[in-house]
Amino acid sequence: MQHPSLFRMKLKEKKLLTDPDCDHPVMQLTLVPVLKELLHDFDHGQCVRIGVPHAKKPTPAYFAIASSPEDAGHYDFVVKQNRGIANYLCQMSEGEEVEVDGPMGKGFNLADLQGKNVILIGVGTGIAPLRSVWRSIINHRNDFKRVSIYAGFLTQLHRLLVDETLDLNKHGIDVHTTFTREHTNWNGPIGYVQDALKDLSPCPENTVVCLAGMTAMIEGCTDILHRLGFSDDQIVLNF
């Protein structure tokens, strides 16, 4: 059965991901379909367009799905509380509805990653589509070789999914976290995520890299990867 593109979802749960003192709060939102029909299927890294029912303002916008296709019955999103629809979403109460269009976009094809080393690179809320990937990798860990995540944030206050990423180590997934600015009690790398990529210099043999985030970060990481010997065929985007 083919689903219509537009459908209604409602807020089931939300939680603050950033430190309470962070000047740009980021929320994790869990939405469920209003009707009882099966949730629309999607591919890892795809996005949806979210708007307010029967309203032109705030203007609808696109958000990457942060849950895995195997997370039955809901979509997760990682949303920075900014102006417009993002602010509206972060201030919703449980049970409030939104209109969703999609899923859409190229996404990441996990079949192309099986049997290979996988590197996931993202900054800020750009780790949302990567979360979709690593949650499925955990469920099928033996299908993949070495898995590494490079995550960049402005400061330690802006760090997202702290408990979840720390827990990835027990699944044989390495997480390399970088902060752009120095912060108290942080002895790790300071700089951009591409700096950490350059310093650690992963081997390109039998490796695929998934990139998600801002254009400048993608271009910077792509340049470093090329210098390390990665070809364009080994670097994939979700759009």
Domain count, please report it.
2
CATH class of the largest domain: Alpha Beta
Radius of gyration: 18 Å
Structural class: alpha/beta
- Share of β-strand residues: 25-35%
Q: Looking across the biggest beta sheet, what order are the strands in? A: 4-3-6-1-2-5
The end-to-end distance, rounded to whole angstroms, is 26 Å
In DSSP terms, counting alpha (H) and pi (I) runs of 4 or more, how many helices? Answer: 5
In total, the number of strands is 11
Q: Mean of the pLDDT scores?
A: 92
In CATH, the topology of the largest domain is named: Rossmann fold
CATH fourth-tier homologous superfamily of the largest domain: Nucleotide-binding domain of ferredoxin-NADP reductase (FNR) module
**Unreliable residue stretches:** none
Q: Outline, from the CA principal axes?
A: globular
Largest sheet: 6 strands, antiparallel
Topology order in helix (H) and strand (E) letters: EEEEEHEEHEHEHEHE
Helix coverage percent of residues?
A: 10-25%
> Architecture of the largest domain, CATH level 2?
3-Layer(aba) Sandwich
